[in-house]
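$ ./design --mode recover --in tokens.txt
reading tokens...
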């Protein structure tokens, strides 16, 4: 089967909604979260950092819009961490080589970029509140 046939199958495929399949996808997602909580140190560290941000936000009385922005950042960060972890797990199935290293490095770089974005957003939100206190 060539790539044209595969693409054609996906484009013209009939989609039948099945509640059981839909519920199974949520079960798989919850399983992935459990794995993140149980085995991924970076995921736990990020959750602890986010808890500190939430406590600071409550203490400083940040606005509703700022909460929305922070929640968006939390979701992006945790999602990227789980995607990075899954990519690392997949590439480790293959024998380690230069390409595997490149894939792992690229996935890690994506998480780093998001973490840097989170720091910048955090500074933009929290520095004005901290200045008022000082």
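writing sequence...
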């Amino acid at each position: 089967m060539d790539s044209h046939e595969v693409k054609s199958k996906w484009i013209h495929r009939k989609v039948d909604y099945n509640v059981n399949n839909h519920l199974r996808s949520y079960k798989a997602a919850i399983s992935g979260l459990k794995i993140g909580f149980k085995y991924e140190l970076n995921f736990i560290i990020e959750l602890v950092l986010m808890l500190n941000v939430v406590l600071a936000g409550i203490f400083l009385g940040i606005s509703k819009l700022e909460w929305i922005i922070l929640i968006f950042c939390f979701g992006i960060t945790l999602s990227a961490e789980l995607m990075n972890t899954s990519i690392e797990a997949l590439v480790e199935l293959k024998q380690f080589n230069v390409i595997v290293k490149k894939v792992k490095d690229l996935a890690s770089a994506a998480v780093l970029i998001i973490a840097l974005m989170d720091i910048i957003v955090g500074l933009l939100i929290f520095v004005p509140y901290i200045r008022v206190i000082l």
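exit 0
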